[in-house]
Amino acid sequence: MDLHFTVIEKHVFPVTKEMTPNRVISQVIERVWHMMKGHQLKEADLIGIGVGAIGPLDRKKGCMIHPESFRTFGWEEVPVVEPLQRVFNVPIVLNNGANTAAIAEYRIQDYTNQNLLYCISGYGIRCGIIQSGTPLNSKKGDASSYGHMIVLPGGRTCTCGRKGCLNAYSSYGAMFEQIEQIDSTLVFTSSEEMIDALNNSDPAVVSVVNEAAYFQGLAIANMVNILHPDVVLLQGNIIEKSDSYVKKVIEVAKEHIYSNHLKSLYIGKGQLGREAVAIGAAIELFQHFLRRCKRE
Predict the structure, then answer these.
(1) Could you tell me the fold of the domain covering 21-99+275-295?
(2) Which of 205, 193, 68 is nearest to 124 (CA)?
(3) How do residues 195-228 score in pLDDT, each as one tens digit?
(4) Residue 278 class from Cβ within 10 Å (0-12 exposed, 13-18 middle, 19+ buried)?
């Protein structure tokens, strides 16, 4: 990205179950070198590298601690900053991807002086919060903890061992499991497969996804009633590709939000899509760069 936060070039690769931390980080390093070479950039031309990762994180140590609902293995206590720093002698800023995505939407969409709640729906439920222009980073960078909000006391058992967590109803894994229980012929291995069946009006899929949207909307209402955001943005593959899911989430949220909060509240899709995480990481890096320049 350039200093106007315009994407100059991007590379995307799938993180499958075979992608160990070493392979992923090696791929990242290889892609960075490739882009630098293509644009005739030297290391001195970089102000740094921003990283948006799945938490929980130890930002001081630059590590991913134990990412929940990650589709690959071996990511317990994995250094992220140190292997990049060995190759690139530039500042590297690590934050949770939900937080960096919130930063991107806040900055690019010009939500200045507004409070923003950013919710990612996927294999886990993650949220980023911007309060009065400042990202609210939890100590461990664990934006995934929102997925463990209790939406139905005594309900389904979650992967964390407790009952009734949002993840047990609205995460992709939970939806796959419930759909298969209703119709054993429907075994999904990706959200794309489930969304295709949803758009084709498969009754089992429609039923489960509607329930997931209900609990997602309920959770958003609870967060709005506590945090009082001016803007709520939704992101994720199902958000991008299923208008019916988004409509249901918003309807349920508005039904349960304290009425005074609804007067000026906006709930809708994020505008930057999946690129928000990377764009926000670059913005946070630039803010770090400016703060360092002021100190010097």
Answers:
(1) Nucleotidyltransferase; domain 5 (3.30.420)
(2) 68
(3) 999 999 999 999 999 999 999 999 999 999 999 9
(4) buried
Which CATH architecture describes the domain 147-270? 2-Layer Sandwich (3.30)
Q: Is the peptide bond before 56 cis (omega within 30 degrees of 0)?
A: yes
With a CB cutoff of 8 Å and minimum separation 6, the contacts of 102 are: 116, 117, 118, 128, 129, 130, 135, 233, 280
CA angle 136, 102, 90 (to 5 degrees): 85
Runs of H (alpha helix) within 1-96: 21-38, 81-87
Cα distance between residue 174 and residue 167, in whole Å: 7
Q: pLDDT of 104-132, one tens digit each?
A: 999 988 888 899 999 999 988 999 999 88
pTM of the model: 0.90
Task: For residue range 35-60, list pLDDT tens digits in order.
Answer: 999 999 998 898 999 999 988 888 88
| Domain residue ranges of the chain, discontinuous segments joined by + | 21-99+275-295, 147-270
Distance CA 212, CA 164 (A): 12
287-295 long-range contacts (CB < 8 A, ≥24 apart) are 288/48, 288/91, 288/93, 289/47, 289/48, 289/91, 292/91
Q: Is 106 helix (H, G, I), strand (E, B) or coil?
A: helix
